[in-house]
């Protein structure tokens, strides 16, 4: 066999999707919008002497830095996609950025909580007109940013391959989990929620003199943002540690492979390697082994299995296909 004939059985490990390219572009536009708003607020704050505008301007700067992390992660994943040091590609770089953003979001929520409690016991004078202007501006900017990030589209795989070890089973119906985009969206949503709560509190303060509502709304916002941060950190950490729940896909694999009574799955490993891609190692047992391609064909209808390895073991014992709970049930896979 000539070496060049192996090309048909080899493939790149670039599991990025067109949806991630679009997400990177949208996130970059949000960063630009945030930076422009920051400059406007800092300039206006300096010219008018408004500390509220200056404070929110610097807040917008930290906001742009957090969103910039998402853009940076997309860029790294794309740049290193062909680097062989990444065994299963760079699909988890955006997930790592999403986890880092969740931590930053959590720290922001903690700061809001501490600051709100401090102001509840030691109230400060509020310049309602300036504060209301900042809150309204922030709400508009963040709602526009959220709208930009929410503009989705179809996601399709960027490559195809077919060989004896794995095959590209990706289809538009594959589940798509982009923790990086979710982190960026939660950042702007958290800011929008903070602005909305601030507007409500400032309105009540202007009309009824209820200054205490400002720190109270801050604590409510901190609790809500903290909850979002925890959920994002939990989900992205599970993906990073290959501990996601793949029971639905595992069930479909069992159904497809064990359609014949003489075939049983002995071991099944599933883990995510991209926003819409999973790797799978499948070990099956049968008395009459068939070509690997035949077993792969049974799994073609399952979307997102983009790196598949199948081991076929011949059993010479009549009892080897006994349906033990660990071998033939939904729990017969290792996440």
Automatic annotation (TrEMBL):
Domain Cation efflux protein transmembrane: 31-241
InterPro entries, per the entry: Cation_efflux, Cation_efflux_TM, Cation_efflux_TMD_sf, Msc2-like
Coiled coil (UniProt feature): none
Locations listed in the record: Membrane
Membrane-crossing residue ranges in chain numbering: 29-48, 60-81, 93-114, 126-150, 184-210, 216-233
Record Pfam families: Cation_efflux
GO biological process: intracellular zinc ion homeostasis
GO MF: zinc ion transmembrane transporter activity
Keyword Transcription regulation included in the entry's annotation: no
Domain of life: Bacteria
GO cellular component: membrane
Record keywords: Ion transport, Membrane, Transmembrane, Transmembrane helix, Transport, Zinc, Zinc transport
Membrane topology of this protein: Multi-pass membrane protein
Chief place of localization: membrane
SUPFAM superfamilies cross-referenced by the UniProt entry: Cation efflux protein transmembrane domain-like
Record Gene3D superfamilies: Cation efflux protein transmembrane domain
Protein name: Cation transporter
């Amino acid at each position: 066999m000539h070496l060049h004939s192996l090309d048909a059985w080899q493939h790149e490990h670039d599991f990025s999707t067109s949806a991630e390219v679009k997400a990177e572009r949208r996130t970059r536009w949000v960063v630009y919008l945030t930076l422009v708003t920051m400059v406007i607020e800092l300039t206006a704050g300096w010219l008018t002497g408004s500390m509220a505008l200056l404070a929110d301007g610097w807040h917008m700067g930290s906001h742009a830095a957090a969103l910039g992390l998402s853009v940076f992660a997309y860029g790294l994943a794309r740049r290193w996609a062909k680097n062989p040091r990444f065994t299963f590609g760079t699909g988890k770089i955006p997930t790592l950025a999403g986890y880092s953003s969740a931590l930053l979001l959590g720290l922001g929520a903690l700061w809001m909580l501490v600051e709100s409690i401090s102001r509840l016991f030691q109230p400060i004078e509020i310049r309602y007109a300036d504060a209301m202007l900042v809150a309204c501006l922030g709400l508009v900017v963040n709602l526009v940013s959220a709208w930009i990030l929410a503009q989705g589209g179809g996601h399709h795989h960027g490559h195809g391959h077919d060989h004896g070890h794995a095959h590209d089973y990706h289809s538009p119906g594959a589940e798509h989990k982009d923790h990086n985009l979710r982190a960026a969206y939660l950042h702007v949503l958290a800011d929008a929620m903070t602005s909305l709560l601030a507007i409500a509190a400032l309105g009540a303060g202007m009309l009824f003199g209820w200054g205490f509502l400002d720190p109270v709304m801050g604590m409510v916002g901190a609790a809500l943002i903290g909850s979002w941060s925890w959920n994002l950190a939990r989900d992205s950490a599970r993906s990073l540690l290959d501990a996601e729940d793949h029971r639905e896909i595992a069930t479909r694999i069992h159904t497809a492979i064990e359609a014949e009574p003489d075939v049983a799955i002995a071991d099944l490993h599933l883990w995510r390697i991209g926003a819409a891609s999973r790797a799978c190692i499948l070990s099956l047992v049968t008395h009459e082994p068939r070509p690997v391609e035949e077993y792969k064909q049974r799994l073609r209808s399952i979307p997102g299995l983009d790196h598949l390895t199948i081991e076929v073991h011949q059993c010479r014992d009549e009892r080897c296909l006994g349906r033990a709970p660990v071998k033939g049930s939904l729990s017969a896979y290792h996440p």
